Amino acid sequence: MPIVFIHGVNNRDGDAYRENEKARDGFLREYVAPALGLSADKLTVISPYWGEFGAKFAWNMAVLPDSSTKVASFGADQEAQARARVAGLLAESNQSGDLVTLAKIDLSAAVDLLYASAMAGAKSEDEARYLARSYELASEYAKVNPQPAWLATAGPKNFADLLVSSSKAGVVQSFGPLSKILDSIKEGASRLVNAAPEVATGVAGLLLRKKLNTAVTRFAGDAFVYLNSRGTVDAPGPIVTTVLTALRAAQAKRTEDDKLIVVAHSFGGEIVYDILTYFDPTLSIDCLITVGSQVGLFEEMKLYKVSDPKIPADPKKDHVARPKGIKRWLNVFDTNDVLSYQLKPVVDAVTDFSYDTGYSTMGAHGGYFERPSFYKRMAARLKEADAAAGAGAQ
């Protein structure tokens, strides 16, 4: 059973992209695969990378205002990069990094923040998978025990130890000893402590401003490049070809009982929509999940190959039809994500869901897949979709 993940704009190959991919794939295996009735090891995850065909900047974005190039570097080693991502995570979610204080207010939120920080430094898909299993135990414990007695004696240095021992979150038999799991979680706690001064002194704020400028510039650039070079049915452009090849390969892997799930983040949703309505309407997807996407916005602007300017005749009543190749379509947005949009007002027979990433402005746009709880919600919605489909077939 394949899951195809299609990334959005502003993704370029490199350490951060590959580390995010490992963490995401690990959580997809541990949470989403069981929701589909499949063992984690049997799930096929296909992630076509099309960023190499996106916008290229002849002067490397030299036109961007930059108050501190020196600050924006943050260091090149792997742990420094992980800490930089955590500093951004804290700044974007308006958190101080004080797990103990947060835990006394909301233990579940503290668990989510701790594991998001641990994920930021996951070095392999296996590490992400045992973090996913550990998170499951810790989050369930927090739900049942929102105010455990050990919180009274918890501090920054022993919070992870107390949480893991109390919740049995280190007992993940298939992925090695307790010490290995605990080390990864404690590294996550350490990153939060070490990143906090960078947030407090404004270093992360400067980083975020540069990140915001870069992201908006590359978002617009990638979208312009795609629209200009997507090609035709007979001669599709390189971005379409990359994604289309992956979707066809995933469809070829299906057996009669298999489902094809496609998760499209951001502009990945527009690419999939163009493919299913124009480049290859014969493709069949059991469930499309668009996350932080602009599919509806681009249809409002009539930018797709098949967009009909005569629809809607009445915006209050009319919708465009859901592509025939999509059996079920779930669309997820965060109201803090300025690049995410509802879909139901424009496309017929879709379901919109709101998800609070805990981030603000641009941080929310990439924050969905950094939150372990997002994968749990995805798994739950897929189970609901399966149940609804089964009831409809009876």
Write up this protein:
The chain is of the alpha/beta class and 394 residues long. The chain contains 14 helices and 6 strands. The protein has helices at residues 15-35, 69-73, 78-93, 99-105, 107-119, 125-144, 159-167, 178-200, 203-229, 238-253, 268-279, 295-300, 363-367, 372-393; strands at residues 2-6, 44-46, 261-265, 287-291, 329-333, 351-354. Strands 2-1-3-4-5-6 form a 6-stranded parallel β-sheet, with helices on both faces. Strand 3 (261-265), helix 11 (268-279) and strand 4 form a beta-alpha-beta unit. Helix 1 packs across helix 6 and helix 6 (125-144) crosses helix 7 (159-167). The longest helix has 27 residues, at 203-229. The radius of gyration is 21 Å and the shape is globular. The two termini are 23 Å apart. The model is unreliable at 67-76 and 200-204 (pLDDT under 50).
